[in-house]
Specification:
single chain, mainly alpha, 92 residues
Amino acid sequence: MDPIWSQWWVWGVAAVTLAVGEVLLPSYVLLGFGIGAGIVALLLLIGVPLAVSWPILVLVFAVLSLISWLALRRWLGVYTGQVKTFDHDIND
């Protein structure tokens, strides 16, 4: 039997938990980790041999989470020129 950390459903539960946590703390950070965990769960489900060792699996999760977080920031983040700044006081 495989260790618990190499089971696809554990990563799936982590992905759902992190996505629900994003609702409570909206900052795209937990959603990035949730997407990373979801992709790892999907890869383990279809049979990609990621569970060779714990460090390799965590490294894949970290890289996927970083890529998804950067994509979320690019897609949903603040764009240049979107924030309005004022050079004068309203009372002047």
